Amino acid sequence: MDASHTHRHHPVFCTVVPPHLLDKAALSEDSRRADLAQRTLERDSLLRTRRRVTAVRGIVPALAAPASDDPDRTVYDAQHRTRLPGTKVRGEGDPLSKDATVNRAYAGLGATYELFLKGFGRRSIDDSGLPLDATVHYGEEYNNAFWDGQQMVFGDGDGDLFLDFTVSVDVIGHELTHGVTQYTANLIYRGQSGALNESMSDVFGSLIKQYSLEQTAEEADWLIGAGLLGPNVTGVALRSMKAPGTAYDDDELGKDPQPATMDDYVNTHSDNGGVHINSGIPNHAFYIVATELGGKAWERAGQIWYDTLTGGDLTPRANFADFARLSTAAAVTRYGAGGAEHQALQKAWSAVGVPLAG
Predict the structure, then answer these.
(1) Is residue 65 helix, strand or coil?
(2) pLDDT confidence of 59, banded at 50, 70, 90?
(3) Measured at the alpha carbon of residue 25, what is the angle toward residues 21 and 29, in degrees to the nearest 5?
(4) CA-only gyration radius of the chain, Å
(5) Using CA atoms, how far apart are residues 35 and 13, in angstroms rounded to an integer?
(6) At what angle do helices 301-310 and 320-335 cross, to 10 degrees?
């Protein structure tokens, strides 16, 4: 990677619930819903500024000694305040907590660590054994979860529109993968490179769930955040990789705006150029590759995506066509030209309308 790229770019704070959902909820006629959404948006804005200052840029530190194959997890309790990290409540190897939220966070950190290690030989977020820290019970009815460049943070949700943010292991994996991207391609969080950044997190978040449930591509639901939406929401998840644009259609949260192909690409100035929206296009491409190849999606489709993300040729400003070209080349490099993997890549990028040449 050209070092000049990393000196120009500071990774941007990202939450799992996209701002367009909270913007919609903030307009609710229900004053409680509107107030909580506005409070979450204001908190996110403050944290976004903080991350610009603290986030590690995409540089892997030199190893002083070989990293361990074992995770180093610590879970903290913010006790409904916003000071991080909070009070330590469970460390690596400690027995189960009486708090189910603590245990879900601990297990989710472990599931993420295990998929990257067993699937791709990566030792933690930075490939150097970075300790995995998480804080639960952040704020009061905080409707989000995020990676702040150093650790995971989970809100409890309001129990109305959103539930406890530790309930979906793919949400945990999604946010931690922002850390992996931060330490590798360092994709700039705007426009198509930002949508790729978001898509990387959805892809590996979904793979972490599939790995932990021992699911094949055919068995997976391909939903991001299933179980996270509250009882009063008409929807099944935050996003669908199988059918972008169908995850929810709700009076308070609006309709899922994700496109599945370039024909419906959304040009917008909000959400850093629609990073949470247009990510549906590379998400759908991955779904097609994974289901074309079948079996365990992390073994071939996931390996190709990982090779592309970490191979050194994906620049911070890469667009969809760059990723399509490089992922197809990665498939050829690892599996050979003309094989099932190469054909699946060609079919997928064609299906979503992203050109492989030029």
Answers:
(1) coil
(2) very low
(3) 160
(4) 19
(5) 22
(6) 120
Q: Tokens at residue 190, please?
A: 């705007």
The length of the chain in residues reads 358
Question: What pLDDT does 66 receive?
Answer: 64
| The predicted structure's pLDDT at residue 356 | 87
Amino acid present at 91: G
**DSSP labels, 261-317:** SGGGPPP-SSHHHHHHHHTHHHHHHHHHHHHHH-S-TTTTHHHHHHHHHHSS---TT
In this structure, which amino acid lies at residue 284? H
Adjacent-strand bridge partners of 204:
none
Does residue 276 carry a catalytic annotation? yes
Q: Is 258 helix (H, G, I), strand (E, B) or coil?
A: coil
Identified catalytic residue from 141, 175, 198, 252: 175
CB 19 within 8 A of CB 42: no
Alpha carbon distance 328, 343 (integer Å): 9
- CA–CA separation, 91 and 207 (whole Å): 25
Catalytic residue status for 175: yes
Helix (H, G, I), strand (E, B) or coil at 26: coil
Over residues 282-286, the mean pLDDT reads 98
Average pLDDT, the chain: 92
The pTM of the whole model exceeds 0.85: yes
Q: What is the C-alpha separation between 148 and 134, in angstroms, rounded? A: 10
CA angle, corner 128, sides to 58 and 199, nearest 5?
A: 45
Q: Is the peptide bond before 85 cis (omega within 30 degrees of 0)?
A: yes
Which is the catalytic residue, given 276, 284, 341, 342? Answer: 276
In the prediction, which pLDDT does 121 show?
A: 97
Q: CA 216, 182, 266 angle in degrees (round to 5)?
A: 70
